[in-house]
Structures are given as structure tokens and as C-alpha cells.
Amino acid sequence: MVTGVEQSARCPRCRAETRLVLTRPITRETYQETSLEPGVPIDAFLDNIRSAWNVGAMFRTADGLGIRRMHLAGITATPENGHLLKTALGAEFHVAWDYHADGVAAAHSLLRQGLRLWALEQEAGAEPLDRIRREDMTGPTVLVVGNEISGVDPGILELCERVIYLPMHGIKRSLNAAVAFAIAAYEISNLAFRA
After folding, report:
1. Cα 66 from Cα 185, distance rounded (Å)
2. Which residues of the chain have pLDDT under 50?
């Protein structure tokens, strides 16, 4: 048995007994490290995210992208939540985080610390993500993502320097919160590391 790897006793489709077969050991050295120079620090602010699974996926994305800190607000689950742990897969141990009951007060605090708030939201005046350039990355930036249904709290939106959105091509105007976060965070962090 391999420790640290969750196994299921039966295949969920055919119900046959399963076993894990590794062709090579999984170690940190298995994966190629990137050699990006540190750039503009990026944080994430999760405002009232309903799904603990989404939050866990966001932690995993944050770890992979080198996001410095996760600011969790309102009803957003914290790493004590078992559902979050299922999708974070240990990333919660590698990304710093803090929790704030009042998201608007937390946003004010981040501004006082000199961080810039950029919301991921579809609203009039929002700019498409693909228009963001390296020159826009002039200081520590916080990507704000809001509730899956109601979006970013209007009180927090008012404090945001920029509001960006993901251009969509189908009939749906949005993606799952964790997927949208991953796309936006990936683009912004790549610009930040190159800044």
C-alpha cells in the first residue's frame, strides 16, 4: 500500500476490485520546477464562496501559481472544513491564509496595507482579462472572487481599482467559480512573474 494516496476498494462503474500501480515513485523531484523570478506579489480574496469544494480547488490553484495569501471572507470555508481538504489535496499547508467575518472591512484593511484590489466580475464597465498587460502590474495585487450566485459584494466592488471578466463565447455568461478563478489567477500571475 502507498501511503498518502487515497484508494477506493471498488471501481465505481464496474464494481471490480481496484489496486494502485505506480510505475515510478511520486516525489517532488518527479515534477519539473519552474525558474521564474519573483515578481509582483499576488494574493486572492474569496468573498462568500458557498462551496467548500470550490475553495479547496482554489487553494490548490493558488499553490500551483505561487499566490502568496488567501483572504477568506464571510461564509467562505476555511481549511478546517473536511470538504475543502478533499479538493485542496494538501495545498492548504503551503498557502498562507486568513479569515475575516466582514469582507468589506477586510477589503478596507488590505487597501490600507497598500494592496490593489482587482475583482473578477461581470458588470458594466468591466474589462476583459485579455486586455491586462504587464505594465498594469505595478504593485501587490489581490484577485477578488465572489459568491457563485450573487458575485462580489457591492461594498467590496466599490473599493476595487479594476473589475475584469472572462470573455465567453457560448450562451452561458460565466464559469464555475473555481474554474474562473484558475483562469484569471493563471493569467495575472504569469504577468506578475514577468513584471
Report:
1. 10
2. 1-7, 26, 30-31, 35-36
